[in-house]
Amino acid sequence: MNSRHALVNDYVHIFGGFYNPLGISRLDGCQFTKLSIELIFSYSSDHAALTVDEGSKALICFVWRLMKNEWSIAGVLSEAMHHTSALLLDRSIIIFPGEAYGYEFPIQNMTLDSNDTVISTDIISKHGQASDHPIIFLSSIDYCSL
Fold first, then answer.
1. Centroid of chain to Cα 106
2. CB 79 within 8 A of CB 125
3. How many CA atoms are closer than 13 Å to the CA of 56, on its beta-carbon side?
4. 113, 91 Cβ separation under 8 angstroms
5. Helix/strand/coil for 145
6. What's the burial of 79, exposed, middle or buried (CB within 10 Å: 0-12/13-18/19+)?
7. CB neighbour burial string for 29-66, b if at least 16 within 10 angstroms, e if fewer
């Protein structure tokens, strides 16, 4: 409950959650295996996980990165927010806030270099509606059927 997941090296990894906020588990076949490595911070809710670098790494909460069983800082958002959802698009992570500290909710773009290191963070827009983990997806317009 309240955990987040990412696909790393072809395995679904589960990060944090209400019952084990420091835990990391991996789905092996039809059962979960609790890994010996733990998260640095307690993530019982309000965090996110995103698969990057062709599926070999996971970014957790867009501040810490897990790679080869080591944690490192990945980047810092321009404005604090929580209950977010994110979308990896080419070399950018687009982060949609569910809630923020204030009345405007900043949509932020984290630009990654070829090593998946955050090189910049920019606010690209703001919206005024709070939500809990907005649902986002990519789509394309079929101009032939219009």
1. 16
2. no
3. 6
4. yes
5. helix
6. middle
7. eeeeeeeeeebeeebebbbbbbbbeeeebbbbbbebbb
| Residue matched to tokens 């957790």 | 60
Tokens of 46: 């309000």
CA gap 49, 16 in Å, rounded? 10
Q: How far apart are CA 25 and CA 28, in angstroms?
A: 9
Write the CA distances from 55 to 3, 51, 67, 115, 126, integer angstroms.
19, 6, 11, 13, 30
Mean pLDDT of the chain, nearest integer: 78
Chain position carrying tokens 């307690």 = 42
Q: How far is CA 62 from CA 44, 52, 118, in A?
A: 16, 11, 9
Single-letter residue type at 31: Q
**Residue range 96-137, pLDDT digits in tens:** 877 666 677 888 898 988 877 788 889 998 887 777 767 676
